[in-house]
Specification:
The complex is a heterodimer of chains A (about 250) and B (about 400).
Chain A lengths: L2 H18 L8 H20 L9 H25 L4 H4 L7 H28 L6 H4 L2 H25 L2 H15 L15 H4 L3 H14 L6 H24 L8
Helix pairs in contact in A: 1-5, 2-3, 2-5, 3-5, 3-7, 3-8, 3-10, 5-7, 7-8, 7-10, 7-11, 10-11
Chain B lengths: L1 E14 L6 H6 L6 E14 L3 E5 L6 H8 L7 E6 L3 E4 L12 H11 L4 H15 L14 H13 L5 E4 L8 H16 L3 E5 L3 H7 L2 E6 L2 E7 H19 L20 E10 L7 E3 L3 E10 L7 E7 L5 E6 L14 E10 L5 E10 L6 E14 L26
Parallel strand pairs in B: 3-7, 3-8, 5-6, 6-7, 11-17
Antiparallel strand pairs in B: 1-2, 1-4, 8-9, 10-12, 12-15, 13-14, 13-16, 16-17
The chains are: A mainly alpha (about 250), B alpha/beta (about 400).
Chain lengths: ~250, ~400
């Protein structure tokens, strides 16, 4: 069983190496992408339309959410395609198929870590107060987010093997999901009467959790507990669906 | 305990539309789809250290069996039992990424085939040396020639050190020298107790590597026995299949030996090659006495026809041709609506290999053929002498005297 960990590691390395092979900036892209996105939104929301982010500079406010969000959305986009794009392997060699899905996420996780280092730099640069005790809670939020992403990734990658439309559907979903999550705007901007409905999005609790820890020296609020429950359910559901249909992968190409 | 055991294994595939559509899922209704049995009622077992060759035409189910064994796909019914770690060589260089170096790909490919990283590290030098690409190991594999690529792929798989090794027709690439190396490696693994399943179109390779073989035809085991018998049987099955496919009586099939007129006033119904005790077999030790037997049906009177028997190499070259005319043998007159059985007793002084047997029947004046079958049956000659050439002259060897020649 253990050798599958080696495979997981090797396959993740393959994705990362291949991604930045023959590119001049290489791993720098992991920083440039969220930074560029945030700079655009900063231009719009701190100069053109003023958005109230309290005493937190807009750039830190949005970057602290953009980094986990881009990890989430790019991991899902990669995971959805991970089975289909490796069909030649799946139809010929046996290994636990979820390795392909997990590796897609792990490879994006490395990008996340690089981008996160810049976030810490920003926090220091803007001299934001830091409570290291609350930072200890950060892995819990991260794991919750990863479980949610994996659940969706497992479900969607399996379904994508049967219906190639799923890939396109998810590109669309991820675009809409960005705007349904408080990344470029604060939750306070959402009308009060829609707030309850808004919190049904599990990413709201997660992103709010990140901000509470990183920017407000606080622990995640109640909405995060809801996110944990949803994430666990999605992960369990996605994984069991994947395991149920994976035997058919090799037969359907 | 069996290393591999298949009991009544069948696998069916849906044909026609490649995937199901959304509507059928929501309706949960079985739409009338056509199914194709890729393999049907497969039974066989192998003990540790045994080897089995699988031969058969394209679409016979060879690859399906390998996929079932390697757990890529699952049988529709029946049971597969596998004991021991297995490695499948269904595609060389599986998971190779063109942008990555040979070194990185060895680790990648090795872990896909089920090796630990530490194991690969230990065998890394052997793998690279076996592939013979020491100089290029840090070059991206996209710069490799297809031969180098295949060599590295095989080399990794051959060093997995599996208890069960499944090899598909992957050695077609690579030069002769490397192929030889691959076969030797397989033989070596078998000797070390690895159970081997080897799928190939290369009859000589199958005979070299596997003691036993099976012939798959249309998803079923058409024959199972020694590899020599199986390769002979395979040719026969192919011929029968071809005959079923085309109109047998079609007169314009010329075998490339000039224009031949066949009147079919007499028809060779059956050709056999038998041991001296009349036992039918496909395999003969070199030098063995055998009987070529043909059954002929006469539809018109055939006065003293010339009857011939020929043996050819699979490439068409005539190894032996015997006719009653040249031998000065007077054949009897056969009358219409009778059948006759004719025998050619002969001694098979042939070198090891597979041969094709033909019989033909011509007019007394050699103006026309009644019927001729050039490749009626395949048989195999085995020999322990290892001699090459057409004929086995059963050479011996001795040294009679050593004298010292004075040099001064």
């Amino acid at each position: 069983m253990n050798h599958y960990f080696d495979l997981l590691f090797a396959w993740s390395t393959r994705i990362i190496r291949a991604r930045y092979q023959q590119s001049i900036l290489g791993g720098l892209w992991a920083i440039l992408q969220p930074l560029a996105t945030v700079l655009i939104f900063t231009l719009v929301f701190s100069f053109l339309i003023k958005v109230d982010t309290g005493n937190i500079p807009y750039i830190v406010f949005s970057y602290s959410a953009m980094v986990p969000w881009l990890f989430f959305s790019s991991a899902i986009t990669d995971m959805v395609d991970s089975i289909v794009s490796n069909m030649n392997l799946v139809s010929k060699i046996y290994f636990p198929r979820e390795i392909l899905v997990f590796s897609a996420l792990i490879a994006r996780f490395v990008d996340f870590l690089i981008a996160f280092a810049i976030l810490i730099l920003l926090i220091i640069l803007y001299r934001l107060p830091v409570n290291l005790l609350t930072w200890l809670f950060l892995p819990v939020v991260l794991i919750c987010q990863i479980l949610l992403a994996l659940g969706i990734g497992l479900f969607a990658s399996a379904l994508n093997a049967f219906f190639r439309d799923i890939k396109h559907v998810f590109t669309l979903i991820m675009q809409l999901w960005l705007y349904a999550t408080p990344i470029i705007y604060p939750v306070t901007l959402v009308p009060e009467n829609l707030r309850n409905l808004y919190y049904f999005n599990p990413m709201v609790g997660i992103i709010e959790g990140y901000r509470a820890i990183l920017l407000h020296e606080a622990l995640p609020g109640n909405s995060f507990i809801f996110s944990i429950v949803i994430s666990l359910l999605v992960f369990a559901g996605g994984y069991s669906f994947f395991k149920k249909v994976e035997v058919q992968f090799a037969d359907i190409i | 305990m069996y290393s591999i055991k298949l009991t009544d294994v069948s696998k069916k595939y849906r044909i026609g539309k490649s995937s199901l559509n959304l509507r059928s899922i929501f309706r949960r209704k079985n739409i009338a789809t056509k199914f194709h049995w890729a393999v049907k009622n497969i039974n066989f077992g192998l003990q540790a250290g045994e080897s089995m060759g699988i031969i058969g035409p394209n679409g016979a189910g060879k690859t399906t069996i390998l996929k079932l064994l390697s757990k890529v796909t699952f049988p529709t019914s029946g049971q597969i039992e596998m004991n021991g770690r297995f490695s499948a060589l269904i595609e060389l260089g599986a998971g190779f990424h063109p942008e990555l170096s040979g070194r990185e790909n060895v680790f990648l490919n090795g872990t896909i085939l089920g090796m630990r990283k530490a194991e690969i590290q230990k065998r890394f030098d052997d793998i690279v040396q076996f592939a013979g690409i020491e100089k290029f190991i840090d070059t991206p594999v996209k710069r490799y020639s297809s031969g180098m690529y295949a060599r590295l792929g095989f080399s990794v798989a051959a060093h997995v050190d599996p208890q069960i090794l499944l090899v598909d027709e992957v050695l077609a690439v690579g030069d002769m020298a490397f192929q030889k190396k691959c076969y030797e490696r397989m033989q070596q693994l078998i000797q070390n107790g690895t159970t081997l399943i080897f799928v190939s179109h290369n009859m000589r390779a199958i005979q070299k590597v596997c003691e036993r073989s099976m012939v798959l035809y249309r998803g079923e085991i058409a024959f199972e026995g020694s590899s020599a018998d199986a390769t002979a049987e395979y040719s026969n099955i192919l011929r029968k299949a071809a005959a079923d496919f085309q109109d047998v009586s079609s007169e314009d099939i010329s075998e490339g030996i000039g224009q031949q007129i066949m009147t079919h006033e007499a028809v060779i119904e059956k050709i056999e090659i038998l041991k001296q005790n009349n036992e039918a077999t496909n395999t003969f030790p070199s030098g063995e006495n055998a009987i070529v037997r043909a059954k002929i049906n006469f539809y018109k009177d055939a006065p003293a026809p010339v009857i011939a028997c020929s043996i050819r190499h699979p490439d068409g070259q005539v190894v032996y041709d015997f006719t009653t005319e040249w031998a000065g043998i007077q054949t009897p007159d056969f009358s219409a609506f009778t059948s006759a059985i004719i025998d050619f007793p002969l001694q098979l002084n042939l070198s090891a290999g597979s041969y094709q047997l033909g019989v033909n029947l011509a007019y007394k004046d050699l103006s026309k053929y009644y019927d001729r079958i050039d490749r009626g049956l395949d048989f195999v000659v085995v020999s322990s002498s290892g001699a090459r050439g057409f004929a086995d002259l059963h050479a011996g060897f001795s040294v009679s005297k050593i004298t010292e020649n004075k040099t001064n």
